[in-house]
Amino acid sequence: YREVAERDDIDAVVVTTPTYSHCEIACLCIERGKHVFMEKPMAVTVDECRRINSAVARAGVKFQIGFMRRFDQRFRQARDTIASGQMGRVMLIKSTGRGPGGPGPWMYDLRKSNGVAAEVNSHDLDTLRWLSGQEFKQVYAQGKNFKCHDAREAWPDFYDSFAAVFTFVDGAIGFVDGACPVNYGYDARVEVLCERGLLLVGGVEQPGFQIIYSDGQVTSSAVKSWRTLFKDAYLAEMEHFVECIYKDQKPIVGGEDGQRAVEAVVALNQSISKGEPVQVRQEVFL
Predict the structure, then answer these.
(1) Which of 113, 124, 155, 158 minimizes the C-alpha distance to 18?
(2) In whole angstroms, how far apart are CA 161 and each of 64, 74, 149, 187, 271?
(3) DSSP E strand boundaries for the chain
(4) Residue 265 belongs to what H/E stretch?
(5) Predicted local distance difference test score (pLDDT) of residue 268
(6) What is the pLDDT of residues 79-126, one digit of tens each?
(7) φ, ψ for residue 176, nearest 5 deg
(8) 174 with 128: CB under 8 angstroms?
(9) What is the mean pLDDT of residues 275-280?
(10) Which of 42, 98, 200, 202 is the most exposed place for a label (fewest CB within 10 A)?
(11) Are 44 and 19 in contact (CB under 8 A)?
């Protein structure tokens, strides 16, 4: 990546390396004038997020975080419906994010990865904040390692499943549950309870195919991968990134959004460790 950062014929880079390397790679590329698209999570610590954001501000480059749900038609429709006011105030928002396969061994060390809450459920945390239009205030979480037996001795604080309850500054309640691996498929679902109704986004079943037998039995297949479920959203977010570079526009999802998600993850992990509610410390952005 150091060679890439020094090349004059490269205008932008995409960072998809393990989380603990994000800050070093991003800051070097940004300082060399490269636009950066970064996969979530933004970094391991809030201080690293602030370092990246400060580098972006100094260099004047474009910086975008890979929260692809913001480019998914279903999630955008939910956001537009809430923003229109027709559903009234958001009261309760729940987001489920469960990965089909096991976490990589490097993820067992929370000092390098921040665990499942970061690596799998950063999308859910961003979804809560984005759809509700509110900032996190407090979180109470519990986590446990049910399946990753090889991590228990060396990394006793690692969890492969968790549940977290958030309160927001404007009074709404949020809930996130995550797990990896679940083996049955890729599970991404959101429920938003508002004053005037309910919004449901996503589902376990692969859309568009079912078998209905003469005895009334119905069978279908679970969604297998995020790669297929969000295929169009991945393309749209990258097109947006390139368009922002060409047109000198600010990406619709950037460093502040990445930092807020990391702040929530840090507080969530502290809550699991302490066994008590923790305030989500919202640092000044830039």
Answers:
(1) 113
(2) 28, 26, 13, 13, 14
(3) 12-15, 35-38, 63-65, 90-98, 136-144, 161-168, 173-179, 187-194, 197-203, 211-212, 218-219, 278-279
(4) helix 255-274
(5) 98
(6) 999 999 999 999 999 999 999 988 888 899 999 999 999 999 999 999
(7) -130, 135
(8) yes
(9) 98
(10) 200
(11) yes
The pairing of strands 197-203 and 187-194 is: antiparallel
Phi, psi torsion values for 259, nearest 5 degrees: -65, -40
Separation CA 125–CA 113 (nearest Å): 16
| Tokens 């996503």, residue located | 202
Q: How far is 17 from 257, CA to CA, in rounded Å?
A: 19
Q: Cα separations (Å) of 127 from 78, 121, 122, 260?
A: 11, 10, 8, 11
Can the peptide bond before residue 41 be classed as cis, meaning omega within 30 degrees of 0? Answer: yes
CA–CA separation, 179 and 100 (whole Å): 9
3-state secondary structure 65-113: ECCHHHHCHHHHHHHHHHHHCCCCCEEEEEEEEECCCCCCHHHHCHHHH
In this structure, CATH architecture of domain 68-228+255-273: 2-Layer Sandwich (3.30)
Q: What is the separation, in whole angstroms, between the first and last Cα of the chain?
A: 26
Task: Judge whether 99 and 145 are in contact, CB under 8 Å.
Answer: no
Place of tokens 């089909």: 100
